[in-house]
Amino acid sequence: MNFTDKSIKALKPKKTRYVLTESGNHGEGRLQIRVNETGTKVFRVQYHLNNARKVIGLGTFPDTDLKTARQKHAQITKLLLQKIDPKEYLEKQNAANIASEAERTFLDMLDDFDVYISTRWAESTIKRTRGLVARNITPFIPKDLMPDKFNIDMAREIIFRVYNRGAKEQSRLVRSTLMSILKFAIDYDNSPEQFKQPPKYNVKTNFIRDINYDTPKNVGQRWLSELELRQVWYADDLPFHTHNYIKLAILLGGQRVNELYAAKSSEFNFQEKIFTIPVERIKIKHRGEHIVPVSREAEKIVKILMQHQGESEYLFPHRDSIYESAHVSTIRMAILRWCDKHGVERFAPRDLRRTCKTLMGKAGIPKSQRDLLQQHDKSDVSSVHYDRYDYLKEKRESIEVWTKYLGDVLC
């Protein structure tokens, strides 16, 4: 018999499934339809090769129509005439296609890594990492380079290109970033979700750890004494935004630089007297957003900054874009110039955090409460997984003590 669309539609299910075979030439395979008990109709080809009977499914009717089934049958016939087992051929072809689709170039891997860190790392770290990758890694990766072809010599060339221009600390960060990228690739391919799946990156070892050299690490020790704090507080030759950032950072207990410098006016609630740092800008994300009490003195500075925002929503707006906060290098360079001008030992914006931590201890604030105010992470199980209390009452007590202490120091 020869199948037609009309005859196939007319087929009815029976108590047991049955198979109808279309007439054809010996050795070319026979087009068949199997009708299941449920009424499902499946196209298939039955053929004999090397004294063995085999069957290949072509699809379910009507999703696969008769015309498509005949085309697939014709392809199978060509293979049989060449003495090629179509089932083995198609299985190999499908495996090759899956593997090909799974493979990603090194540049693709960088894009995937960027997506990965976008929901897991602190905003400041993401921004820094993206800059390092864009400047020091991406431009030196061939477009067709596969991740498993990236080797230690390529990595060394990328790292030492930065090292040899004198940016030794940045070269350390580039090395660390490369190590994180390869770890991401290895972890992905070895994840439970990828079990028995073709490797996406096929990176076997994280050889970046074998690239080692001594570089100065930024282990900070600098903090401002009471006298230095008073001097910088009353400085009349610091830029407006730099000076007010320093004051606000101190009054708020030394929050992390980017957590405050990228602050928006909408994050300050003067009725509740709080500053809410959203989770996407926080380094320690597992505790959620960070709430900082705002003293009356801090509120005054925030309101002054709001008067100079213009159309920007940021307290410290970018000079050329209302949609961005200013870059931290702006205040860092302003502080360095001021220090050099007045013969003060240089300090960086992040040293204000250490200053607050140190002097709050002198003010009598227990370390546990200083840690809460500055959101220093706790690694015990109860803190990480169960404790969701915001400790706002304790933070307010710390800010009250700290504000009184500053009043005595600065008077």
What does this structure look like?
It is a single chain. With 411 residues, the chain is of the alpha+beta class. It contains 16 helices and seven strands. A four-stranded antiparallel beta sheet has the order 1-2-3-4. The chain has a three-stranded antiparallel beta sheet with strand order 5-6-7. Strand 1 and strand 2 form a beta hairpin. Helix 9 packs antiparallel against helix 11. The N and C termini lie far apart (105 Å). The model has no long low-confidence stretch (mean pLDDT 88).
Nutshell version of this structure?
Helix content is 47%, strand content 9%. It is built from 16 helices and seven strands.
Summary keywords:
411 residues; alpha+beta; three-stranded antiparallel beta sheet; 47% helix; elongated
Overall outline: elongated
Structural class: alpha+beta
Low-confidence parts lasting 5 or more residues at pLDDT below 50?
none
End-to-end C-alpha gap: 105 Å
Instruction: Specify the biggest β-sheet.
Output: 4 strands, antiparallel
The arrangement of helices and strands along the chain is HEEEEHHHHHHHHHEEEHHHHHH
User: What integer is the average pLDDT?
Assistant: 88
Helix share, percent: 40-55%
Total count of helical runs of at least 4 residues: 16
> What is the total tally of β strands?
7
Supply Rg. 33 Å
Strand order of the largest sheet: 1-2-3-4
What is the percentage of strand-forming residues?
5-15%
